[in-house]
Design goal:
This protein is α/β, with parallel strands linked by helices. 43% of the residues lie in helices and 11% in strands. It contains twelve helices and six strands. The chain has helices at residues 3-6, 9-20, 35-45, 57-62, 68-72, 84-88, 95-102, 117-130, 160-166, 176-181, 197-207, 213-220, and strands at 25-28, 50-54, 66-67, 106-110, 141-145, 184-187. α8 (117-130) links the parallel β4 (106-110) and β5. The longest helix is centred in the middle third of the chain and has 14 residues, at 117-130. The protein starts with a helix and ends with a helix.
Length: 223
C-alpha cells in the first residue's frame, strides 16, 4: 500500500466508497494530488471485477486501459439519447465483450473531464442492454477520475445546437443516467508531486486563470 495514500483521508474515503459500496464516485484534484496513484491502488487492491477506459488513445495508454469507443463499440459523432436505439441497437458487441460487461462490477473512466454527456449516456444504454435494463449503467459502479480545470469535452460548432436540445452542458455531469443515479464527489487536495511551494502556487494561479502581473513576472524570470 502506498504510504502517501495511507496519510490522505480523502483518498482513503474514496477507497472505502469504491470497495465497500456501489456508489458512483467522481475523484478530482489538481495535478500532483495522487489521482493516478489512487487508480493504481484500486487496480491492485480492489477485489471487484473492473475495466479501465479513457476518452482518447493517449489517455487510455497512460491509464493502462482502452478507449471508451473501443470498449463499447460506440460510433463517432453525436450520440443523443433519442438516437440510441438507432445508432447503438444495430451494433452487437462480441461474445467476449458481452461476457466482460456481464461480469463487470466497476467501470473506471480516466480523464473524465473530456467525456461528453451523450457519450456517458451511450455507455449507460449499452450497459443496460447487456445487464440490468432497470438500473443506471446496468448496475455497474462508476469511478470517474479527472480535473474539470483541464481539457474539456470537444463539441464541434455544428453540434452545439443539438447538444443544447438535450443537455444543460456538454460535460459528463449533465449525463441523464448519472443525474438519476447520483454521484459522490471527492477532491484530493494534498500535492505530492511538487515540493516547491512557489512552483505549486504558480501552477494553481495558472490553473484558476489568475494571471496577475506578479505571476507573469515570476514566470518570465525563468525565460
Amino acid at each position: 500500500m502506498d504510504s502517501t495514500i495511507e496519510s490522505n483521508p480523502q483518498a482513503e474515503l474514496a477507497f472505502r466508497f469504491i470497495t465497500e459500496t456501489n456508489q458512483h464516485v467522481f475523484l478530482t484534484g489538481r495535478a500532483g494530488t495522487g489521482k493516478t496513484t489512487f487508480l493504481h491502488r484500486i487496480r491492485e487492491e480492489c477485489l471487484k471485477q473492473l475495466v479501465v477506459v479513457a476518452p482518447t488513445g493517449v489517455a487510455a495508454i497512460n491509464a493502462k486501459g482502452v478507449t471508451i469507443h473501443s470498449m463499447f463499440q460506440l460510433p463517432f459523432g453525436n450520440l443523443m439519447p433519442d438516437q440510441h436505439s438507432k445508432l447503438l441497437g444495430q451494433r452487437k458487441l462480441s461474445k467476449e465483450k458481452q461476457r466482460v460487461l456481464q461480469s463487470l462490477d466497476l467501470l473506471i473512466i480516466d480523464e473524465i473531464s473530456m467525456v461528453r454527456a451523450d457519450v456517458l449516456d451511450a455507455i449507460d444504454w449499452t450497459l443496460r442492454r447487456y445487464r440490468n435494463p432497470r438500473k443506471p449503467f446496468g448496475g455497474v459502479q462508476l469511478l470517474m477520475i479527472g480535473d474539470l480545470h483541464q481539457l474539456p469535452p470537444v463539441v464541434r460548432d455544428q453540434d452545439v445546437h443539438v447538444m443544447r436540445q438535450h443537455y444543460e452542458t456538454p460535460y459528463f455531469f449533465s449525463c441523464k443516467a448519472l443525474k438519476q443515479a447520483g454521484v459522490q464527489t471527492i477532491e484530493l487536495t494534498k500535492i505530492y508531486r511538487q515540493r516547491d511551494e512557489i512552483f505549486v502556487k504558480l501552477l494553481n494561479e495558472v490553473r484558476e486563470n489568475r494571471m496577475t502581473p506578479e505571476v507573469l513576472a515570476q514566470l518570465n524570470s525563468r525565460f
